[in-house]
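Minutes, project check-in
Item: structure for the 558-residue chain
Input as provided by the requester:
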Amino acid sequence: MKGTRKIYCGYGRIVCSLGTDVASVYEAIESGATRLSCMPDKTPVCKIDRASALWARWPDLTFVEKMLVEVLSDMQIKTGLQLSDSNVQLILSTTKGNISLMRVDPEQTCLWHLGDMLSDRFRCARKVRVVSCACISGVAAIVLGKRMIEQHRCDHAFVVGVDEASEFVVEGFKSFKSLSSGICRPYDAGRDGLTLGEACGGLLLTSDVRLSPYGIYVGGGAITNDANHISGPSRTGDGLHFAIEAAMKEAGLVKGGLGFVNAHGTGTVYNDEMESKALALSGLSKVPCNSLKPYIGHTLGASGVVETVLDLEQMRHGRVLGVKGFETLGTPLPLNVTACHRDAELGSCLKTASGFGGTNAAIVLIHADWERKARSGTNEGRRGVRFMKEVSFDTSDLKGKSFAEWSKEEYRKSGENDLKFFKMDAPSKLACIAACRLIGDEWTGYPRQRIGIVFSTADGSIESDMRHQSVVGHALPEGASPSVFVYTLANIPAAEVAIRHKFQGEMMVFVEEEPDGFSLAYAESLIERRFCDAVLYARCDCRTEDFHAVFKLMERQL
């Protein structure tokens, strides 16, 4: 039943370019600090000081692993909870994880390896759940943790997000010509792009209010898809608008009572314009709005966790932090943005995120002492799930053909003729073939914003990773290819399906070596708990000549 168990925000920890604890990072932001470093090619990024004695303690670990071990060790000490306890779940959000290992051991960059490392080190009683949904990964992981506790799968969840400013990622964003020449300036008329950063953030979600120093709970959460383009946001803002509306509805929050919006705010023209339209569609243009990326950079899979922890601090201090560098609004629709910090009663906050593949996510944070100003949440009963169809493919289907030959034939059998298909990577081609076989053009039974996709994979994007790395490693004069880099994100095959079939409901991507039933059960729960009316579930692993895919279509029982 929705709304029967409050999920509180407990202890948080941040490691980023501005410091290694929440208090120092918040104080640095209040003072207007930003610490820029340069990559070898002089690209400005917000990097962590690797010379600090803090990182010398684990000589056997990569820098990403060191950040995770530091944050999780501290969280266990501060909360008194242990990951070896059966009621404590670890959720890891990341975009590229240990991608710096691509030069020496590509297989170790598969994200499930990072989850396994944490499981072994902390003797986790429960399987680590790895979420990789591009730049919304951190917010998506918080939504997942909230739902797992609500469903009594666990009582506490450590949500931890991490990414580093690697050459692999920097070169990829350079290929899109989306990087700023200095500090990003979200929403400003003079902005020139985003600034990358690196960080690790951790947040305890718990059903026990005694473990919450903030007295703040996650009132609502939602994930949606634009179904527009794999590398560009919706021009109308409808995907993010759907996420905002669903999160606000679940929280039971009246729009007039919202304290502030901490938006994604990357400083790119398309993202900022899309956000202004989405907030306008949601009736929130006049609500104080900010972005924290001018201070810490865009930390990818860590950003949703790090920024949520800083939202909790803003609510604690009763202060909406200003957007550094902001002078003149440069979005097509109004936003209530200022460069100055503003004191206010902040009983609630809307946190949003958007990313490659058309992904969007939103959560609503509410102070328990303030909830009298919010409407009561809905308390709808569960409903049944009906499995409709299933389709599967594996390497045996090649029958002596190459994957390229087989995929071309299968695609043409579906009656499709979109030339974009032939530019996709192998996992995306396989996903599109399976979805076309399963769904067909006639399947239009539900509103598109009520149809979700749950995607499970082990290999993710490893072949595209190696292609991109080959360019980065050889420093070719033409630079990296944006059409290759975008396929290095684990959520893109699911995004290609969403775009083709215009599915704008939830899109969740789990990275796991072998499915254990959790991701399928999660897909069913989206229907049971009324977040979706229908869901496409997919387990898809594909290297060019070795692949396996199982797709299932399910809908609500009438």
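Outcome recorded: The mean pLDDT is 93.
No further action items on this chain.
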